[in-house]
Design brief:
By secondary structure, the protein is mainly alpha-helical. It has 9 helices and 3 strands. The protein has a 3-stranded parallel sheet with strand order 1-3-2, sandwiched between helices. The two termini are 30 Å apart. The structure holds ligand Z5A and magnesium ion. The site of magnesium ion (MG) has 3 residues, from helix 2.
Length: 195
């Protein structure tokens, strides 16, 4: 850890974002095996993390078993990321690459698609995370897609999830390897939406 900190070398934070059922979890597993196979220290995480107390409240909300104000559930998703924040930073600084299945971009995209102000969603909590579940409806997913387009910035790499799973996997490997190498060379950690 000390050697890494002296050289500035660190693990990469790889966040997989996309609409429901777009293949994020499938690609997280494949990417984990790929980077492990190359000998990189790497872990796979996902948000919401349903194992914590906050995560269980989120899970119950998503399953339509409880009702919460839109602002309150936004803050709970964010709290769920803050619960893991210092562990995340320690892992990255000690050289472990993290593949994260959904992160703060989901938080902002889903809440703003419900009508909350996008700047409030970013500021409220982040500076300093077709079937039975609540959000799985086509019209709502279109709104989420529009929010993702607004959030898109230079740190994003977009991969077409309509492609065959093997092609998505290959493109992702190229993008991620580039990112892992840049971080190993000492690209500093920065905050989301810090300006
Ligand atoms: N949410 C939020 O509102 N605020 C927040 O801050 C956060 C999240 C963090 C739960 O998320 C909900 O929480 C989510 C956003 C909201 N809204 N919804 N709904 P989740 O991550 O637990 O669940 P999800 O992302 O909606 O769905 P998912 O089931 O995890 O989908 P996925 O991971 O993207 O896809 P997958 O499981 O890898 O693949 C789905 C199927 O497609 C599967 O059968 C695969 O074998 C198949 N597949 C995968 N890739 C392909 C390709 N390329 N071609 C064909 N078939 C494929
Ligand atoms: Mg998933």
């Amino acid at each position: 850890m000390e050697n890494n900190q002296r050289s500035g070398s660190r693990g990469a934070l790889i966040v997989l974002e996309g609409l429901d059922r777009s293949g994020k979890t499938s690609q997280s597993c494949r990417l984990l095996s790929y980077l492990e196979g190359l000998g990189h220290p790497v872990e796979s995480w996902r948000f919401p993390d349903r194992n914590t107390g906050v995560g269980q409240m989120i899970s119950s909300y998503l399953a339509n078993k409880s009702e919460l104000d839109d602002h309150a559930i936004h803050l709970l998703f964010s709290a769920n990321r803050w619960e893991k924040r210092s562990l995340m930073e320690n892992k990255l600084r000690s050289g472990t690459t993290l593949i994260v299945d959904r992160y703060s971009f989901s938080g902002v995209a889903f809440s703003s698609a419900k009508g909350l102000d996008i700047e409030w969603c970013k500021k409220a909590a982040e500076r300093g995370g077709y079937g039975g579940e609540r959000y799985e409806q086509l019209e709502f997913q279109r709104k989420v897609a529009r929010s993702y387009q607004i959030l898109h910035d230079a740190s994003w790499k977009t991969i077409d999830a309509y492609l065959p799973i093997k092609d998505v996997e290959k493109q992702l490997q190229e993008v991620v390897l580039d990112c892992v190498t840049t971080c190993q060379k000492g690209k500093p950690l920065s905050q989301l939406w810090s300006s």
